[in-house]
Amino acid sequence: MKAIRVSAFGGPEVLEVREVPDPRPQAGEVLVRVRAAGVNPYDTYMRAGTYASGNPPLPWTPGSDAAGTVEAVGAGVELKPGQRVYTAGTITGAYAEKALCKASQVHPLPDAASFAQGAGVWVPYATAYRSLFQLAHARPGETVLVHGASGGVGVAALQLARAAGLVVIGTAGSDAGLSAVLMEGAHHAVNHRSEGYRTKIQGLTGGAGVDVIVEMLANVNLAHDLAMLAHRGRVVVVGSRGPIEINPREIMSREAAVLGVLLWRVPDRDAAEIHAALQAGLANGALRPLVGAELPLASAPEAHRRVMEPGARGKIVLVP
Ligand code: NAP
Fold first, then answer.
1. Which residues contact 171 (CB under 8 A, 6 or more apart)?
2. Which atom of ligand 1 is nearest to the CA of 316?
C-alpha cells in the first residue's frame, strides 16, 4: 500500500509517498481502509521534530484522524468489515491507504457525515467538546468567545456551543474565515487582525465580559483574554506557540480561571462521553465538520504548508 513516510525530521518536503507492506490486524486490532485523513497542526510539529508532547520514532507515518471502512479485524473485535468508521488515533498512521488501529481507537461514523468530514472529527471536535463542557463547564445562556474560530477546532467549538444554547462570538483573520464563522454557528464574527476588535467584543457583551474563551493562540492573546472575562469567567488554552506575560490581578479581580487542555490526557471515561456526544451530533446534523480543502495523499507537503498559513477555513484533508 502507499503511505506517507518521514525518514528524517524537517520541513514539509520530508513527507514522501512510499510503498510499504499492508499491516495485518492481530487480536484486538482493526485495519481501516482510509478514505480521508485529517491534517492537524500537531502533525506538522511532529514532522519537524519539535512537538512539546513528544516526537515519534522514525520512520513514521503521520496522522491520527482518518475516516473510511473496516477492511479486516483481529480476534475479539466486534466491528464488521465494510462498516463506516472514524479513528481517534492509529497504530501505523492515518496518512496512508490503510491504517492499523487498536479497536478502542475505531468508532462508527454516522451516515450523515462524509468520509472527508469524518477525517475532521476526533482532534478538532473532541478538543472543542472537552474545552467547552468538561473543563470550562459552559452552560446554556452563557457567552463564549471562540478566539480563532475559522480553523478545525474553532468551527467545532462554534457548532457545539451553538447547539448547546450559548451566545457565540467567533473570530477569524480573513473575509472567507469570517463568513465561515457566521455560517457555522456564531451569532457574531469579529476579525482578530482588525484594530480595536477587543473593544467590539466587549460591546457585544454589553460590557459584562465573556463567560468562556476557547483560545487558539494563547501566546498572543492570553493577557488580553483575561481582561475580556466576566466575573467567574474561564479561559481554556487550546493552542499556544510560545510564552506570554500576564497580570494575575486580572484573574483575581474576576475570580476567573485559566485552564489548559491536552487531548492525549483525556481519561477513557471522559473520552467515551465525548464519542457519544459527537456521534449523536453528527447523526442529527448539529455537527457538520467543514472541509475546506481535499488534497491527494501525495500533496501532504502542501497540506502541511497550508495548515500553518493564515486564512483558515475549516479542515484540510488528504484523500488516498
Ligand atoms: P487551524 O485549523 O490551523 O486554525 C488555526 C486558527 O487560529 C484559525 O482560526 C486562525 O484564524 C486562528 N488564529 C490565527 N491568528 C490568530 C490570532 N492572532 N488570534 C486568534 N486566533 C488566531 O488549527 P486548529 O486545528 O484549529 O488548532 C488550533 C490550535 O490548537 C493549534 O495551535 C493546534 O496545535 C492546537 N490544538 C491543541 C490541542 C490540544 O489538545 N491542546 C488539540 C487540537 C489543536 P485565521 O487563519 O482566520 O487568522
1. 145, 146, 147, 148, 149, 150, 181, 189, 190, 191, 192, 197
2. 2
